[in-house]
Design a protein that fits this description.
- The complex is a heterodimer of chains A (about 230) and B (about 100).
- By secondary structure, chain A is an all-alpha fold.
- Chain A folds into two domains: about 160 residues, no CATH class; about 50 residues, no CATH class.
- Chain A is about 75% helix and about 0% strand.
- Chain A is globular, with a radius of gyration of 19 Å.
- Chain B contains four helices and two strands.
- Chain B is elongated.
- Chain B is mostly helical.
- Classes of the chains: A mainly alpha (about 230), B mainly alpha (about 100).
- Chains A and B meet through helix 2, helix 3, helix 4, helix 5 and helix 6 of A and helix 1, helix 2, strand 1, strand 2 and helix 3 of B.
Chain lengths: ~230, ~100
């Protein structure tokens, strides 16, 4: 490709940011449709994407409501909160790169998600890390919100969600988010146990609590280092 | 609590982690054991949500078209299919099975 002004505009990190934004936007469609089928309206779905802006937490929030209805709202908030914890680690990583001061921290904080951190940390120079964070954060924010709206309107038009297999789509979405995290023995064991406990306690516990109980298992395994790989000396 | 309250409360709850890292970088979040617990917590919650969404409905354990749909989704993930394709094929599998069975 010849070195023109446009090839400078679309530097490698810019191209990467745009690609990540488009890909993430695509699964914003499934979020929008599933949120409407869980009982939220189009506005409520859109506000979640604008303000919560963290895919895993948003899917958890609507997933718990889909299963438990109005009685599960508290559990939906707690599940979303617990799934958002990794953003805190990303923020610790990004704070020294972005050097935001005072109220200027609010916007980068909102944009601190899996994708923006991943693109930023894949860059060498600190200026490129900063560009990667902002470009990816903004492009994901724009596409995620646009596609949430498309999905929500689509879900509204589809009617009965089970007829279209949207309940299976919701389960598949969680499986897709889970899949890349199942690498180590300990994670596999925790995942399998969490799956069983949540399913088996659903008929007896109040709505939403089975998922939170599964979270307790993770804390126990992590705190007591159960099934952890022996440390190399 | 109504749905709107839950939406704002949940959004604020998620934001609390994000801003915490910017305000106090040298927090307890810096500890490797805390990072380990957080990553296991993510696995457990996502796995529990997969199970509940796949095998329960109206607080009952239910075996239906979602099971074959999830098996297909798992195979697509094993072959590194894109997220949106995998989700769409899972939905289509369940929808087709319900139409014909």
């Amino acid at each position: 490709m010849p070195k023109t002004a446009s090839s400078k505009l679309f530097s490698p990190v810019a191209t990467m940011s745009l690609g990540v934004g488009l890909a993430t936007g695509l699964y914003g469609i499934s979020f929008g449709a599933l949120s409407v089928s869980a009982g939220l309206n189009v506005w409520q779905t859109q506000v979640l994407s604008l303000l919560m802006f963290s895919g895993g937490s948003q899917f958890a929030f609507i997933g718990v409501i889909a299963g438990g209805g109005p009685a599960a709202l508290g559990a939906a908030v707690v599940s979303a909160w617990l799934l958002g914890v990794r953003n805190g680690f990303y923020a610790v990583r990004m704070a020294p790169v972005l050097q935001a001061v005072g109220l200027k921290k609010l916007i980068p904080a909102l944009l601190t998600i899996d994708e923006s951190t991943a693109v930023a940390t894949s860059q060498e120079a600190i200026t490129e890390q900063r560009r990667g964070f902002w470009l990816t954060g903004l492009s994901v924010f724009i596409f995620w919100n646009l596609m949430t709206l498309v999905g929500a309107l689509l879900g509204d038009a589809l009617g009965d969600p089970t007829k279209w297999g949207l309940d299976a789509a919701a389960a598949a979405a969680f499986l897709g988010l889970l899949w890349p995290r199942l690498k180590e023995r300990q994670a596999l064991a925790v995942g399998a146990l969490a799956f069983l406990v949540a399913v088996l306690t659903t008929p007896v516990l109040p709505a939403g609590l089975p998922v939170i109980l599964a979270g307790v298992i993770a804390v126990i395994f992590g705190a007591f280092e159960l099934l952890e790989k022996p440390k190399e000396s | 609590m109504n749905l709107w309250t839950a939406i704002f409360l949940g959004s604020l709850a998620v934001f609390s982690w994000k801003i915490l890292g910017f305000l106090v970088p040298e927090t307890v979040l810096d500890h490797p054991k805390v990072a380990k617990i957080a990553s296991l917590l993510t696995v457990a919650l996502l796995s529990a949500l997969t199970g509940v969404q796949m095998l329960t409905a109206h607080a009952q354990i239910v075996f239906d078209a979602r099971i074959p749909a999830l098996i297909v989704a798992g195979m697509l993930l094993a072959f590194r299919a894109p997220f949106i394709l995998m989700v769409a094929v899972a939905a289509g599998t369940a929808a087709l099975l319900r139409m014909f069975l």
